[in-house]
Design brief:
- The protein has one domain.
- It has two helices and six strands, in the order H-E-E-E-E-E-E-H.
- The two termini are 40 Å apart.
- The N terminus is likely disordered.
């Protein structure tokens, strides 16, 4: 009986140790540090963001200056933010499944 318990524990540990999370491809959304769906609002003057910032389908970014963003700051409707939202939705669906 003792050997059976030890064997079961070892098999369980091996199964746990070999499972790995599969990385999810974010596509063009990976370039964005902040990607809003309806708006992006910043209320702090000491905010600095590394990566792109945008919002789609409602292009609204307030409270950020270009000097506060190391990357692209999309202040108007842009194909890049639309594609990033599409890629983000695809990544979310993949992760949920």
């Amino acid at each position: 009986m003792e050997k059976l318990i030890i064997t079961c524990v070892l098999v369980g540990l091996l199964a746990i140790g070999t499972s790995q999370a599969t990385p999810i491809d974010l596509g063009t959304a990976a370039n964005f540090a902040v990607l809003g769906g309806s708006a992006v609002t910043n209320s702090g003057s000491l905010t600095f963001i590394t990566g792109d910032v945008g919002s789609c389908p409602t292009p609204s970014v307030t409270g950020l200056l270009p000097a506060q963003v190391i990357g692209m700051l999309y202040l108007a409707a842009d194909p890049a933010t639309a594609l990033a939202q599409t890629d983000l939705l695809a990544a979310y669906t993949t992760a949920a499944n």
